Amino acid sequence: MTIYQHILREDFQKLHPKLQERYTLQVGKPFYGEGTMSKIERGAAWLVPLLKLGVRWKLLFPESGNDIPFTIKNTSRILSDGEVEVYWERSFYFEKVTRNFNAFMTVDANQEFVKDYLGEPNLFYSDLKFSVTSEGNMCIRSGVQRLILRNIEIPIPSFLQADVVVEESYDEDKDTFTINVTIQNKIVGRVMAYEGEFKEQHI
Question: Which residue segments constitute the domains of the chain, with CATH numbers given?
Answer without folding.
Answer: 3-200 (2.40.128)
